[in-house]
Amino acid sequence: MIDEKGILFILSGPSGVGKGTVRKALFEQDTNLKYSISMTTRAMREGEQEGVDYFYRTREQFEQMISEKKMLEYAEYVGNYYGTPKQYVEEMIELGHDVFLEIEVQGALQVKENFPQGVFIFLIPPSLEELKNRIVDRGTETEDLIMNRLKEARNEIEMMDKYDYVVVNDNIDEAVRKVQAIVQSEHCKRERVAKQYKALLEVDDK
Where is each Guanylate kinase-like domain found (predicted)? Predict the structure, then answer.
């Protein structure tokens, strides 16, 4: 029997495109998926748990991991570090779980440098007008901030060439079906199956 390893899938796209909504809907349908748990230097809040909500580390510990190249990506936000630890992702993949990382574009580009064997999926809105409507509907941002987000989104959409797949998020169910098809397709890729099958043949020869 082939000992099938998991795959790291990176779901990315402009702010407001619906990454979180698509990821949640996807997880409701597939129990083998693991959500990549982030690491942070911020204090644990009431009700949160180590290894469930975040991996909590001191600033010194986090900076040491950065220097030892143990982070797939990281950023500093409001005085605290946030990032994705490489070891957790590798352990889940080794156990045969597909790991999903939902992340902004700049973070995804860091992951591509540090873990190029990941599968990069770019989620885009049907149009910039639709993206503007979604951001406005949140009702949480000023007109200036909305315009800045749209300008940033335009720049980010130009980076789609760095991704393996592009999914238009026009309808949540349809977007989820397309991501599921990508997952199945990646597990059937010749180079991935051949590598695992050849390892099995080597065991049989012994």
Answer: 6-184
Contacts of 154 (CB under 8 A, 6+ apart): 128
List the structure tokens of 97: 């779980």
pLDDT in tens, 104-155: 898 999 999 999 999 999 999 888 888 788 777 777 778 888 888 788 888 8
Q: Is 14 annotated as a binding residue?
A: yes
18 is in an annotated binding site: yes
Q: What is the pLDDT of residues 78-101, one digit of tens each?
A: 899 999 999 999 999 999 999 999
Residues 6 or more apart whose CB falls under 8 angstroms from that of 136 comprise: 146
Say how many domains are in the chain. Answer: 1
The dihedral formed by the CA atoms of 171, 177, 182 and 187, expressed in degrees to the nearest 10: 160
22 is in an annotated binding site: no
15 annotated to bind ligand: yes
Residue 61 resides in a domain: no
Residue 20 marked as a ligand binder: yes
Query: Is 127 known as a binding-site position?
Result: no
User: Is 16 annotated in some ligand binding site?
Assistant: yes
Q: Was 51 annotated as part of a binding site?
A: no
Contacting residues for 56 by C-beta, under 8 A, at least 6 apart: 39, 40, 41, 42, 43, 44, 50
